[in-house]
């Protein structure tokens, strides 16, 4: 029995339906009356649930109005709570007063779908820019995605701070480095940051709308390009959602290879970030060392799987390439060499007093704040939250691998770096275990059928950055009606805003690097 | 400190020598690239990278050009924070509608003569994102482009070889 569903059944003061045709079957979904949407959130908050995602779907093609969905999480349990809104009055009570993640997600729903969260404190556009026509709601079915958007006049109203000596620093969208675009607006007094406001959406490419014009099998390539550094996590989450909708049986060997890809992606990205954090405090030695290890790893990926980031390596029904005994011994040799080298670097990191001085107590995000903000992934684990889909909701083969999560309490830049040190160690162990225990057999089995009309699927994967969620809905003729993408960045970006308060401006790049959230994954 | 020194010495120089590079492209193009940059850019080709809507895959590979194996600085290739100092813009992504103005301004802030290179399948023609309300497609739909480096994403070696082709294409020869 799902604990969260039990809370609603016991306490929600209204009858509601438990919906059918939701896959996988262990993710219950219920439809509550619109007026009870926020009440359900209140009860679930009291039951210690987190809000993992909130989104809307245009269901006029089924003769209904709009559906708003809230996905709650408690440990390894998920619960989808849906309310149906009439097409001529698409409003619903806001969840932002209970759950901080709803604050931006509802702005996004309001901007892109045109549904109205009543009682929301701030309905400035999000991802949509103020120079779009106000009635341009791209996720609605009547919107023509191929027609270019005209520009209208408008200006984004940033929060302001006033007082003697207070000044503003606008940064971006084009940043001083090889990174993605976004805008940061600081209010500072001397060196101290009073407030930071993020404004994202610059790399919005209309990905969710693009999904709706693609076939189920082709669309995995698009999922693999939502955020290039997390291509494995995204394509896997998409495939899990699709496979549960079609009742596909993925060969066991393919599942193990998927885990191998996921752990290799984790190691490569963590290595790069550990180095980059050190480089931001002028300890370039570490960057060059970790980038060397990362490059070796990418080259082996290329040799074994045909792509340095293993893009398009995961396909619906399995994986695109197999590994032979030579490949396994190559990975084993790589892990042997890496483990020794990595431990040398960790010792150097640990003994370096300059790193200690710069990284500790910088950019602190307390456990209470992390929980309030609802962050996920390594950001959450560095702030005392034990959240890891591989542990709490293990999909095969993680049920057999027994992942040991790393959780630290201090929530500073050091904790976010050190959680990754521990995760690299754990992932190296997992890679060894995977290549030693991997079962024989096929690596793919074509899907036997396409999704049933008006059915939905759900996939959640712990990528290197955190929990990555896909929710798919099949349209009246079995096509993609809606694909909701929830990159971990959509939750964790807001943690950066909070953690820099009271820090000095020159430490911002360091704090930002320790989060390293995806702009593209957030902006979709 | 002793550990750092020891690690540096034990690691040695890992930059791939041009003669025996495991990456054939670098062996072929490296010498020529250095020669062109020495002659025509006084040893220093300065690049401003602009992400106009990329998925960040291309950024990872542009970063990798700076790692010890490729070490693009030995050819005189530097990345700058400001377009004012740039000889070349390396533009990735399909151009997002929301990045169009920023891209035009960055281009305007780069002093001519300037070279613009569209990087990645998306930068070349919009790639999988195509043209839509949110994506303007390839970089050349927004600013003039001198050369294209295809790939999803192009590898660091393909990137270096692409840059050489740009210099050749712009009439800059050894």
Could you characterize the architecture of this molecule?
- The complex is a heterodimer of chains A (about 525) and B (about 170).
- In chain A, helix 6 (about 230-245) packs antiparallel against helix 7.
- Chain A has helices at about 5-10, 35-45, 100-115, 205-210, 220-225, 230-245, 250-280, 285-305, 325-350, 355-360, 365-375, 375-380, 390, 400, 415-435, 490-500, 510-515, 520-524, and strands at about 15-20, 20-25, 30, 50-60, 65-75, 75-85, 90-95, 115-120, 165-170, 185-190, 190-200, 315, 320, 455-460, 465-475, 480-485.
- With about 525 residues, chain A is α+β, with helices and mostly antiparallel strands.
- Chain A has 18 helices and 16 strands.
- The mean pLDDT of chain A is about 95.
- In chain A, the strands form 5 sheets. Chain A has a 5-stranded mixed beta sheet with strand order 1-3-6-5-4. Chain A has a 4-stranded mixed beta sheet with strand order 2-14-15-16. Chain A has a 3-stranded antiparallel beta sheet with strand order 9-10-11.
- The radius of gyration of chain A is 23 Å and the shape is globular.
- Chain B has a single domain (about 1-170), classed as Rossmann fold (3-Layer(aba) Sandwich).
- Chain B is built from 6 helices and 5 strands, in the order H-H-E-H-E-E-H-E-H-E-H.
- In chain B, helix 2 (about 25-40) crosses helix 6.
- The longest helix of chain B is centred in the N-terminal third of the chain and has 17 residues, at about 25-40.
- Chain B is globular.
- The model of chain B has no long low-confidence stretch (mean pLDDT about 90).
């Amino acid at each position: 029995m799902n604990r969260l569903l039990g809370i609603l059944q016991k306490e929600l003061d209204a009858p509601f339906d438990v919906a059918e045709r939701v896959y996988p079957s262990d993710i219950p979904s219920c439809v509550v009356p619109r007026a009870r949407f926020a009440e359900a959130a209140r009860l679930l908050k009291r039951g210690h649930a987190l809000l993992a995602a909130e989104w809307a779907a245009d269901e006029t093609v089924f003769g209904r109005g709009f559906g708003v969905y809230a996905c709650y999480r408690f440990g390894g349990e998920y619960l989808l709570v849906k309310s149906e809104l009439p097409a001529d009055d698409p409003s619903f009570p806001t969840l932002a007063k209970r759950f901080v993640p709803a604050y931006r997600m509802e702005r996004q729903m309001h901007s892109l779908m045109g549904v109205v969260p009543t009682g929301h404190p701030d309905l400035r556009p999000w991802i949509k820019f103020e120079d779009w026509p106000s009635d341009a709601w791209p996720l609605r079915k009547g919107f023509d995605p191929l027609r270019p958007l005209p520009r209208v006049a408008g200006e984004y109203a940033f929060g302001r701070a006033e007082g003697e000596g207070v000044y503003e620093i606008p940064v971006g969208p084009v940043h001083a480095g090889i990174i993605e675009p976004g805008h940061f607006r600081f209010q500072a007094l001397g060196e101290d940051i009073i407030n930071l406001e993020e404004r994202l959406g610059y790399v919005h490419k209309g990905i969710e709308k693009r999904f709706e014009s693609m076939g189920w099998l082709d669309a995995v390539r698009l999922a693999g390009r939502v955020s290039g550094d997390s291509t494995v996590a995204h394509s896997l989450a998409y495939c899990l959602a699709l496979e549960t909708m079609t009742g596909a049986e993925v060969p066991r060997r393919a599942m193990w290879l998927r885990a191998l890809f996921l752990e290799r992606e984790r190691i490569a990205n963590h290595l790069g970030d550990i180095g980059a954090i050190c480089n931001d405090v002028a300890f370039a030695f570490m960057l060059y060392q970790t980038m060397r290890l990362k490059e070796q790893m990418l080259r082996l990926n290329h040799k074994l799987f045909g792509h340095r980031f293993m893009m398009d390596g995961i396909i619906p029904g399995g994986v695109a390439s197999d590994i032979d005994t030579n490949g396994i011994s190559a990975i084993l040799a790589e892990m042997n060499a890496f483990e020794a080298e990595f431990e040398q670097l960790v010792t150097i990191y640990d003994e370096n007093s300059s790193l200690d001085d710069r990284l500790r107590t910088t950019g602190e995000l307390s456990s209470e704040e992390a929980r309030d903000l609802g962050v996920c992934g390594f950001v959450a684990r560095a702030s005392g939250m034990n959240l890891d889909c591989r542990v709490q909701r293990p999909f095969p083969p993680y049920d057999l691998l027994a992942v040991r999560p790393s959780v630290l309490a201090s929530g500073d830049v050091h904790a976010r770096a050190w959680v990754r040190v521990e995760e690299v160690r754990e992932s190296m162990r997992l890679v060894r275990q995977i290549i030693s225990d991997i079962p024989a057999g096929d690596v793919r089995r074509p899907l036997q059928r396409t999704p049933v009309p008006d059915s939905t699927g759900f996939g959640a994967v712990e990528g290197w950055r955190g929990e990555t969620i896909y929710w798919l809905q099949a349209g009246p003729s079995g096509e993609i009606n809606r694909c909701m993408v929830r990159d971990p960045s959509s939750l964790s970006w807001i943690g950066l805003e909070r953690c820099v308060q009271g820090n000095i401006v020159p430490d911002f790049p360091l704090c930002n690097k320790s989060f390293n959230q995806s702009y593209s994954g957030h902006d979709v | 400190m002793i550990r750092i020194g020891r690690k540096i010495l034990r690691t040695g120089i890992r930059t791939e020598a041009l003669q025996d590079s495991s990456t054939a492209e670098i062996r072929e193009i490296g010498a020529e690239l250095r020669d062109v940059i020495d002659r025509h850019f006084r040893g220093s080709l300065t690049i401003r990278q602009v992400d106009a809507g990329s998925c960040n895959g291309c950024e990872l590979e542009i970063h990798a050009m700076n790692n010890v194996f490729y070490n693009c600085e030995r050819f005189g290739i530097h990345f700058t924070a400001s377009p004012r100092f740039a000889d070349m813009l390396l533009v990735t992504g399909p151009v997002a509608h929301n990045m169009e103005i920023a891209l035009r301004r960055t281009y305007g802030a780069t002093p001519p003569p300037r070279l613009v290179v569209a990087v990645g399948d998306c930068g070349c023609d919009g790639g999988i994102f195509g043209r839509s309300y949110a994506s303007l497609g390839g970089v050349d739909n927004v600013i003039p482009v001198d050369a294209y480096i295809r790939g999803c994403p192009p590898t660091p070696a393909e990137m270096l070889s692409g840059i050489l082709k740009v210099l050749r294409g712009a009439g800059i020869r050894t």
